[in-house]
Amino acid sequence: MLLSGIFPPVTTPFYLDGNVYFKKLQANVEQYSKTPAAGIVALGSTGEAIMLSDQEQRDVLKTIREAAAPNKVLIAGTGSESAINTLRLTEYAAEIGYDVALVRTPFYYKKQMQPASILTFYRTVADHSPLPLLIYSVPPFTGYDMPAELVIELAGHPNIIGIKESGGDVEKIRRMVEGTRQIKRSATVTETFDTVTPRMLKTANEGNGQGGELVSIGSAPGTAKPSSSAVSVVAGLKTRQKEVGFQVLVGAAQKLEPSLQVGAVGGVLGFAVPAPTACYEIYAAWKEGDNALARLKQERIAKAAHRIVGELGIPAIKHAMDFNGYYGGPARLPLLPLTADAKKEVEQLLADIRN
Question: What is the longest distance spanned by two Cα atoms in the chain?
Answer without folding.
Answer: 69
